[in-house]
Amino acid sequence: MTLHMKLIAGVALAAASVGLAGFGTVGAAQAQTKEVQMLHWWTSGGEAAALKVIKDALAKQGYGWKDVPVAGGGGNAAMTALKAMVAAGNYPTASQMLGYNVLDYAQAGKLADLTELAKSEGWDKAIPAPLQKFSVYDGKWVAVPVNVHSVNWVWLNKAVMDKIGGTEPKTFDDFLALLDKAKKAGVTPLALGGQDWQEAILFDDVVLSTGGPEFYKKAFNDLDEASLKSDTMKKSFDNLAKLKAYVDPNFSGRDWNLATAMVIKGDALVQVMGDWAKGEFHNANKAPGTDFLCYRFPGTDGSVAYNSDMFAMFDVGADRKDAQTALAKTTESKDVQAGFNIIKGSVPARTDVSDEGFDACGKKGIADLKKASADGNFFGSLAQGYGAPPAVTNAYLDVVDKFFNGQIKTSDEAVTQLARAIDDAK
Ligand code: GAL
Fold first, then answer.
1. What domains, with CATH codes, occur in the chain?
2. pLDDT bucket at 31, cuts 50 / 70 / 90
3. What is the annotated signal peptide range for this record (predicted)?
4. Gap from CA of 168 to ligand 1 centroid (Å)
């Protein structure tokens, strides 16, 4: 299915459920619906396996699960489907969401108030402040953070590394040299899915590597115009162009998990992707150190450019509140936080979950987050909805996609268009 078809399927499904038995409308007053309706974009093998941890934990408590899946990382397609549902008055119990989207729905008065539950569960203490910035609106808890992902990772096939005699690349130039080695050995160096959000993740990492964390924050969190137009940004576009030489001819439109599969199978050396890629290795029974390697994107060690999946809780009718509360409480429980994130590839959203049971990449993710937070190097990824509001993210995705695919021809033109598009969008 193409992304477009999936989107249509998602919207059709959303529209079809409008006619369903009066969720949250009829006054069947206090008879409680024992089901959660959940919109999300976790459709790959690893993602589905992780989500099953939450589904199963709810099933044990007697709650059913009505799935509304809309594929597409970053959730643009899912957000379009959600918009249609909400406009029709058909609220899901909860929706997966990224950062600034949560704030938009909260501001529009569409989300529930979970503050009482948050207090009795002690979320204030367990969940770090940068996540609370997006799960608490106007003093009220409106969403539950499920995890912390980060985008500055590379995932490599170990056997291919051994074959080409590769070692961990520490700088961007090391990375190019490693990709060259793979090319000479006849292996696709860089597995990429040519969709705007995947290209933007690659660029997020290139900018962080080229300019460092302070530059990244100034440009992509503060949206500082001088930084957006700077020589460092130009150099970042030049570096992105260099990477294009290492993708295979069929990269256009490829889903991210198919790019991961290329690395899993040894058809490609490396994928640059958030740590949800680890979920695919895990799902294929591959072990870090033996079958694959995880490094921070060369030149970004010490920084964590994060996104966090939130379950935004909708302001559903009284008959659906019990199920919603169960979903929120279960998702945030320590057991589910460990079980889910071990499979998903992410770091728990709670800081009081032990790293026992996580593999080497998971342990590194947890340790990196701790250190980056302490050093002030934990900041939101622009590609993944935590750098700026959705309109700005979309403007960014568009410029990067046009540059990567040759519609914007030079780095000079790219920085001009980037600064202009972001200015128009904010
Ligand atoms: C991200 C999301 C991850 C992962 C990825 C690919 O936006 O935060 O959890 O699912 O998309 O689908």
1. 3-149+307-374 (3.40.190.10), 150-305+383-425 (3.40.190.10)
2. confident
3. 1-31
4. 26
